[in-house]
From TrEMBL:
<keyword id="KW-0233">DNA recombination</keyword>
<keyword id="KW-0227">DNA damage</keyword>
<feature type="active site">
    <location>
        <position position="76"/>
    </location>
</feature>
<feature type="active site">
    <location>
        <position position="16"/>
    </location>
</feature>
<comment type="subunit">
    <text>Homodimer which binds Holliday junction (HJ) DNA. The HJ becomes 2-fold symmetrical on binding to RuvC with unstacked arms; it has a different conformation from HJ DNA in complex with RuvA. In the full resolvosome a probable DNA-RuvA(4)-RuvB(12)-RuvC(2) complex forms which resolves the HJ.</text>
</comment>
<dbReference type="InterPro" id="IPR012337">
    <property type="entry name" value="RNaseH-like_sf"/>
</dbReference>
<keyword id="KW-0378">Hydrolase</keyword>
<dbReference type="GO" id="GO:0000287">
    <property type="term" value="F:magnesium ion binding"/>
</dbReference>
<dbReference type="GO" id="GO:0005737">
    <property type="term" value="C:cytoplasm"/>
</dbReference>
<keyword id="KW-0479">Metal-binding</keyword>
<feature type="binding site">
    <location>
        <position position="150"/>
    </location>
    <ligand>
        <name>Mg(2+) 1</name>
    </ligand>
</feature>
<dbReference type="Pfam" id="PF02075">
    <property type="entry name" value="RuvC"/>
</dbReference>
<comment type="function">
    <text>The RuvA-RuvB-RuvC complex processes Holliday junction (HJ) DNA during genetic recombination and DNA repair. Endonuclease that resolves HJ intermediates. Cleaves cruciform DNA by making single-stranded nicks across the HJ at symmetrical positions within the homologous arms, yielding a 5'-phosphate and a 3'-hydroxyl group; requires a central core of homology in the junction. The consensus cleavage sequence is 5'-(A/T)TT(C/G)-3'. Cleavage occurs on the 3'-side of the TT dinucleotide at the point of strand exchange.</text>
</comment>
<keyword id="KW-0540">Nuclease</keyword>
<keyword id="KW-0460">Magnesium</keyword>
<dbReference type="InterPro" id="IPR002176">
    <property type="entry name" value="X-over_junc_endoDNase_RuvC"/>
</dbReference>
<keyword id="KW-0234">DNA repair</keyword>
Length: 170
């Protein structure tokens, strides 16, 4: 976490950025803990050029922000691996569109690495997608795991910030 907001919020928007699919998830704070409100996917058309795809993502995030009015957005940071450097560049395009939309709407943004999110949610910075899905299911008291992974990862980002704020405020 490194940015703008470290004060309690009531609505947390988590984002799992991607150029093909960007997952989003909204959590609300309640007396009994975090409550799942909404989650979904913003897709871009792979047949369109890069500029049009980035615009689709930004437009989708703007719609989500306008409808749900989050107090803060938690987003996964770009990571890179030597085997797939192009992946981080592609994800950076999506993150740029998302960050622009959030800033334009006045929503503070905080950033977490995938390892930070995994460690806080599961206790292990190397947790698998399946372990993350089960941890989220258990924490939110859901009957089934969240799918697809993009939505589960977005909820994980929102939960990560929710718990980070709770610890920081005590």
């Amino acid at each position: 976490m490194d940015d703008e907001e470290l004060t309690p919020a009531t609505r947390y928007l988590g984002i799992d950025p991607g150029l093909n699919r960007t997952g989003y998830a909204l959590l609300e704070q309640s007396a009994r803990g975090p409550v799942l409100c909404e989650g979904g996917i913003i897709r871009s058309n792979q047949e369109m050029n890069l500029a049009a795809r980035v615009h689709e993502i930004a437009s989708g995030i703007r719609e989500v922000i306008a409808e749900y009015r989050p107090d803060v957005m938690a987003i996964e940071q770009v990571f890179t691996t030597p085997k797939f450097p192009k992946s981080s560049i592609i994800m950076a395009h999506a993150r740029g569109a998302i960050l622009f939309a959030a800033h334009d709407a006045g929503v503070p943004v905080v950033h977490y690495t995938p390892t930070q999110i995994k460690r806080l949610i599961t206790g292990s910075g190397r947790a698998s997608k399946e372990q993350m899905q089960h941890a989220i299911k258990n924490e939110l008291g859901l009957k089934t795991i969240l799918e697809p992974n993009d939505v589960a990862d977005a909820f994980a980002a929102a939960l990560c910030h929710y718990h980070t704020i709770r610890v920081a405020c005590f």
